[in-house]
């Protein structure tokens, strides 16, 4: 049994030594590729990769590139092509058909700009400001007597919209994450319930705010406010480059 254990340890040590040597060799290979000139790398192309590069160059020139521009674009790919060639991966497998790669080079996709949380929250808050403005306008037209608690003032509208915008922006971001990164449903629902409770507390507190601080508007006034808020949101989205239509 002791001999078996020594044999296993010996095999494990040899395997570890072999992995370390392989890792060192890979690093040395990558360093050689990085220091090599594009022309030297082209000389190492396999027949299949050489054909791929030749056809890619032709498609780029046909797409409007000069010979120098096409060569430079392909030179930028040479290190990656050779690294994968050593692993047995051809350029066609790595990049797909020549026409696809040529199109990507000629018409590169612009990276999608990730909007910061605050920008999305403002966008959604402006949306709710417009929606609540419409709602308040309808309430003002259908209610004969003014609300003595003064819970539908312009200040209430502003803060309530900001609360809803922030809360639902957070919820929307969580739902767009991969399942493995999303918080559990218990945590998500807990945050939503807590947010709703804060809103109800806020609405209750508004009954103690003087009308001078939280003035109410007539139905037409709220409709105008809603239209202005939606117009500001439209301009804001264009300025910030926001195209997400998660809500509206």
Describe what this molecule looks like in 3D.
This protein has 248 residues and is an all-alpha fold. It has two domains: 15-106, no CATH class; 117-238, no CATH class. The chain contains ten helices and no strands. The chain has helices at residues 2-35, 38-43, 47-62, 67-86, 91-95, 98-106, 117-142, 154-176, 185-205, 219-240. The longest helix is centred in the N-terminal third of the chain and has 34 residues, at 2-35. The protein is elongated, with a radius of gyration of 32 Å. The model is unreliable at 17-21 (pLDDT under 50). The chain crosses the membrane at residues 117-141, 153-173, 185-213, 219-236. This is Membrane protein. InterPro entries: DUF1129 (IPR009214), MFS_trans_sf (IPR036259). Keywords: Membrane, Transmembrane, Transmembrane helix.
């Amino acid at each position: 049994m002791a001999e078996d254990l020594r044999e296993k340890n010996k095999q494990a040590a040899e395997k570890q030594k072999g992995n370390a040597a392989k890792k060192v060799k890979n690093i040395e290979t990558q360093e050689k590729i990085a220091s090599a000139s594009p022309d030297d790398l082209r000389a190492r192309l396999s027949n299949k990769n050489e054909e791929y590069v030749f056809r890619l160059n032709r498609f780029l020139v046909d797409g409007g590139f000069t010979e120098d521009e096409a060569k430079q674009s392909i030179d930028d790919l040479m290190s990656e092509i050779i690294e994968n060639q050593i692993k047995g991966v051809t350029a066609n497998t790595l990049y797909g058909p020549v026409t696809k790669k040529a199109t990507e080079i000629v018409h590169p996709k612009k990276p999608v700009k990730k909007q910061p949380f605050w920008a999305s929250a403002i966008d959604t808050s402006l949306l709710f400001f417009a929606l609540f403005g419409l709602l308040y306008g309808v309430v003002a037209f259908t209610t004969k007597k003014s609300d003595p608690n003064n819970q539908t003032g312009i200040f209430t509208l502003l803060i309530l919209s900001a609360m809803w915008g922030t809360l639902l922006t957070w919820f929307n971001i969580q739902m767009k994450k991969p399942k493995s990164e999303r918080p559990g449903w218990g945590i998500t629902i807990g945050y939503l319930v807590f947010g709703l409770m804060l809103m109800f507390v806020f609405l209750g507190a508004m009954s103690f705010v003087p009308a001078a601080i939280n003035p109410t508007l007539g139905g037409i006034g709220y409709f105008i406010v809603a239209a202005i808020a939606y117009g500001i949101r439209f301009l804001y989205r264009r300025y910030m480059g926001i195209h997400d239509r998660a809500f509206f």
